[in-house]
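Exam review. A common question shows you a sequence with its structure tokens and asks you to describe the fold in words. Practice with the pair below. Do the first one on your own.
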Amino acid sequence: MTFQLQRRAILQCAGAVAAGSVLPTFAANPLHVYVGYSPGGATDVIARLVARQMSGFDPIVENRAGAGGRLALDAVARARNDGGTIVVTPDFPLTVYPYLYRKLTYDPLKDFVPVAMCGVSEFALCVGPAAPREVTSVGAFLQWCRQNPKQALYASPAPGSTPHFTGVMLAAAAKVELTHVGYKGGTQAVQDLLGGQVPASINPVAEVLPQLGSGKLRVLATTGPERSRFLPDAPTLREAGYHDVVVQSWIGVFAPAGTAEPVLAGMEKSIGEALKTDAIAEGFAKFGIAVKSMARQRVSALIREDLQRWAGVVKASGFVIEE
């Protein structure tokens, strides 16, 4: 986008925001929406749902899959801040990766500016056939782990994932040793849970919902501040007495640092309107994600809070990825 076009876009956006009514139109300049994951996954589908509902823009979703979402973030960090590029990402590449990787090509605070929050989800602590039938609560599971330390295993979708470190937090809070078993994807972890290879697993809620009717999987708790709307009968870890083990994952939209404020305001307004649609709510629900909007300034504060929180957890675990 040339300086002249950018100036015109900013003025259009500023006028629309000031008027509080008509959304700006950038249809002549496609909005590149980067996603760091393969087509069909939760982040990709959410990005496409939001892009489809954005009024006043001409979004093109581009998958830059690989490196756990880092490729897309790196591309956006290096992109021009002319309002033509954004990225849709879950929280952990911004809040956990800085402590997980010795070398990271982007700075979550310096290289990006929040555009919008889209949704939140929780994780579920589940047990399978390898755990005794009488293990039906968090307390019973942890007591069984104390009595059977060699069997005190829990799976997660990946080493270094948020569910991995949620288990680290629970183990520390309960003062019990839990051994993590990392998989290459949540589906594999759940399959081994059902097959009895591991007694427990911590997964995104959406990964366990399809297995509830199998009779082999028992949800002991979820990790949100309140009960999950998708698993209302499962207590939270907070209810189980672990008040500090409260973990929510979120998905947000970010632009390169230095993107003009009026352009950001126009995007935020468009996405905010999109999040009110039934199509978004229904699409998000298929992935166990609840729609949640949040002011851009609050998203900035949330990232700082999450960075501070995960720093201690990751460092205490001693887990790092050498790349």
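Now try the second one, then compare your answer with the model answer below.
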Amino acid sequence: MKQTAVRILRRSIGGCSIGILALTGLPALASSTAPLTSSTLTSSAQVGASPLRPRQPILSQSERLISPSAQLIAVALSRRELRFGDTGADVRALQRYLSRNGLYPFMIDGTYNQETANSVATYQRIRNLPATGIASEETLKDMDFDFLPVAASPTVAPAPNRGTTSNPAIRTGALSIGSVGSDVTALQERLNSYGIAVVADGVYGFETQEGVRTYQRVQGLTATGVADPDTLESMGFTATNRYPYVAAVIADESQLETVRQFFENAYIDRNRRGRFINIGSFDSRFPAEARVKAAEARGFDSRVLYR
């Protein structure tokens, strides 16, 4: 039927046959010369064609990968102890926690391997827990994991003997990039004792800064990479107050990065009156006042504090 209609139109129209061929490709129009209307086109599209499917919503990549009921973060573990050889979602949740805190720079594969055990042991040393490398119930609770309810209550483990921690003295109020000397060596040795490997060369470089930052994350301290008084105290150090004159900018954490543009080793410090930004500690008043004037010249509210 289509071919007959095409031959007739070629004889009557002539050179316009190409345009007519495009129209005669529509089955409903092959035998009709009626003018095209919207209803005609609608009916023609329905003849010989599959029914129109409803449009599917365009999903983002995250929507395609994650169902509405998917659980992104494990909030409760099914086991109260994890150890070498264990596998599954509980191990994967543990590895994610260690990775977020800078202790597990490896693939999160849900297998409790030697790297996982070493990372757990490092965490335990930092938190003053028995460094067994086994994620015991006490260790998992210390990480703030919850547990799914079980039919029978587990046996409560006895409280560990945490021993005593020595309190070596640090002669400076804080240590940061550029610090050198025996205080830095003591800090580096303490990091190594936790399992955070750094070279104990007495120079506070990038490696030491990252080690301190890892320790601070695990301990819930502000992860600045500066061994400030809170961090040193948490590690068991005490200050001898050899540098009692402090050049201080009276501001809080929101101004710290701005202050560091001019005083790169600045850090958050505190005294009995509150918190401030320490831009230098000195053994006499004169250099402290000079540092304060330099800060005031840059528009900061600064003064000398005495410890």
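Model answer, second protein: Residues 60 and 110 are 27 Å apart (CA to CA). The two ends are 104 Å apart (CA to CA). Full marks require stating both points clearly.
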